[in-house]
Design brief:
The protein has 389 residues and is an alpha+beta fold. The chain has 13 helices and 16 strands.
């Protein structure tokens, strides 16, 4: 693969479109900061791709989530329901609001927050106060938001989450960091939650080098997010009406993003094809060794591909396989360690998290760059089979 050298990398940017041309334009016109035509165009492209009425480009997915949670009213001393099986940025954004995550388990079917469990935990652990708001009984904290994560680009039963959010009057925000191009069946996800947040980090299907975006179909909320991310300034003077953030995306980042978005359909097709290729080639091995594949939902963007070792396997088993693959010039990695096992979040309220605890140690992510070749996939597959057997 061009740019990969000998190593078959896990997931690297595919920068073979108009990226250089648009970057040169930024430099030639001197529009390199947070104002420029590419920021505006990128926001329009992201909004269209997600079925949203608008998008607010941000400096990262984490700052996007922080802004979204702030916009829906999450404050110090409150709780936000999130899955424990997620990248730690989900929890960090909650903590940046001064709130704590209420950590819950996932479903085996999609590795996303389990809506049935969320409902059970709310019914068991919460009560409504006279102000009409929901409070966690043990901690006395208000449940300020519900935030599923679109793990791997899989979209869970959002109708169930919407019903819970409406019933308990909880804002519904989604960490959709890796879900660009995903759909909920035939529906784009922009209208499924109050706000959804994407990431454009270097390992994402679409990258700006860094950056994020907040999307949705509530103009008032989107306007508030934009206000927050631009220091909460009331123009044209230097007046500020609340504590804001400097979370804007630069025109340089957006220029890369526009070039990437021009190829979104091809990139998503590549991700889905890679996943199917692995599953097809590993079919017999899976039956013989009780290995399973990453789950997928209808419309998934298939951000990452990989395998899950059998029940009883430990993290060291996964790491040993990754080390042996590295000897063959193949980059493979384990995946997210659950949030409840991370030092900053010890003591946060949590549900039974047995699925997450069993799963995370057994995951191996395999190369899935959008320009990976069949020849490279065969090298990965044959090397993996040799190690397992």
């Amino acid at each position: 693969m061009k740019g990969m050298g000998k190593m078959i990398s896990l997931a690297i940017p595919n920068l073979t479109g108009n990226e250089k041309k648009y970057l040169d334009n930024c430099i030639d016109t001197t529009f390199v900061s947070s104002v420029g035509e590419y920021v505006n165009e990128f926001e329009k492209m992201v909004a269209d791709a997600t079925g949203s009425i608008g998008a607010v480009a941000t400096s990262s997915g984490t700052t996007g989530i922080h802004s979204a949670l702030t916009a829906v009213g999450v404050k110090h001393g409150e709780l936000v329901i999130i899955p424990t099986f997620t990248f730690i940025a989900s929890a960090n954004a909650v903590r940046h609001c001064g709130a704590d995550p209420w950590l819950m388990d996932i479903s085996k079917d999609d590795w996303c927050l389990n809506p049935q469990l969320v409902r059970q935990e709310i019914e068991k652990c919460c009560e409504k106060h006279t102000d009409g708001k929901l409070y966690h009984i043990e901690t006395g904290k208000r449940v300020a938001a519900l935030m599923p994560v679109y793990t791997l680009g899989n979209i869970p039963d959002m109708d169930a989450f919407r019903k819970i959010a409406d019933e308990y009057q909880i804002p519904l925000v989604v960490d959709a960091a890796c879900a660009i191009g995903a759909t909920f069946g035939e529906r784009k996800f922009g209208a499924l939650a109050d706000l959804s947040v994407l990431s454009f980090n270097g390992n994402k299907t679409i990258t700006c080098g860094g950056g994020g975006a907040v999307v949705g179909c509530d103009q008032k909320l989107l306007d508030h997010v934009r206000h927050l991310t631009t220091t909460a300034r009331v123009w044209p003077d230097y007046d500020f009406d609340e504590v804001g953030f400097n979370y804007r995306m630069t025109n340089i980042q957006a220029a890369v993003g526009v070039a990437q978005m021009e190829r979104l359909e091809d990139f998503i097709d590549s991700k889905r094809r890679t996943r199917a290729y692995y599953e097809n080639k590993f079919g017999c091995l899976a039956q013989e060794n009780s290995i399973t594949f990453f789950p997928t939902t209808i419309g998934s963007s298939c951000w990452f591909s990989g395998i899950v070792l059998p029940e009883g396997a430990k993290l060291d088993d996964a790491k040993n396989i990754c080390a042996k693959l590295k000897e063959s010039q193949i980059e493979a990695r384990s995946f997210w360690k659950p949030v409840h096992l991370q030092k900053p979040y010890e003591g946060c309220p949590k549900s039974n998290v047995s699925i997450s605890e069993s799963l995370w140690q057994r995951i191996i992510t395999l190369p899935c760059s959008t320009n990976i070749t069949d020849e490279q996939l065969e090298v990965v597959i044959n090397s993996f089979i040799k190690i397992i057997k």
